[in-house]
Design goal:
Radius of gyration of chain A: 20 Å
Number of strands of chain B: 0
Structural class of chain B: mainly alpha
Order of helices and strands of chain A: HHHHHHHHH
Distance between the termini of chain B: 65 Å
Strand content of chain B: under 5%
Largest sheet of chain B: none
Order of helices and strands of chain B: HHHH
Distance between the termini of chain A: 55 Å
Helix content of chain A: over 70%
Number of helices of chain B: 4
Number of helices of chain A: 9
Structural class of chain A: mainly alpha
Radius of gyration of chain B: 24 Å
Shape of chain A: elongated
Oligomer: heterodimer
Shape of chain B: elongated
Largest interface: A-B, 61 and 43 residues
Number of strands of chain A: 0
Largest sheet of chain A: none
Strand content of chain A: under 5%
Amino acid sequence: MFDKKHEHLATEWVNNYSGILLGFAISRLKDEHLAKDLVQETFIAAWKNITQYNGEASVKTWLTTILKNKIIDHYRKAATRLTDSLLEHEATQSIFFDDANHWAKGYYPQDLSINANNFAEKKEFYSILTQCRKRLKAIQDAVFSLKYVDGMTSEKICKELNISSSNYWVLIHRAKVQLRGCIETKWLNP
Amino acid sequence: MKLHISCKESVDYINKKEEAKISFWQQVQLWNHLAICSLCKRFAKQNKTLTELFKKSETSSSVQFTEEEKSNIIHTLTITEE
């Protein structure tokens, strides 16, 4: 079945919104292939439900909402595997502190002196952050993204991912400790 | 109630403080710890910088859809029933 009008609309959607949607997905997912897949799925889901589009919101907002839901679904799947990942990470976590829970030698916090107003430094920082986020567990990155990229409160994140508040704190804490360690290494020894 | 906390606990409090999730007493314990521990003090400062940068997260990824990928999506859509 070939319909010129449909092809025209599909082309318009993809040309106008695929870049924006991909940018949205990539800042929330560390896996670029997955981000692309979810954007494609978003277009398909929207296409199938085009009759439900009421024209009130802009097409961009409508597509972004669908994509947002797909990303949250992905995060939830990572959250169901939570128990394993929490245990697995116990070992890497403890290297930062010694037996007395004091900073371990070799893991002392360093002065980073990042100048966020300097364009080149800022660019370098975000490139390092992207690399370091790839090392996080999927669930840690999910929590990190909801908290910092979407600015959600801890209560909302727990509800969205159906995790306990104590699990949330463990996750965000470990994500940050790990990111900090990774950023520090890459920032000071480029 | 102990006044002195470990570095590990202090890091935990610093993270929770970000969302105003620590009690007054924990705040006192933290102040006390930061007054005597230069490493945690440095961590707190560094953490503040990082948190601010995280909040302004920009993706540095230059990943784009290739023309081929775009036409694949368009093709998929045109053969998908509405």
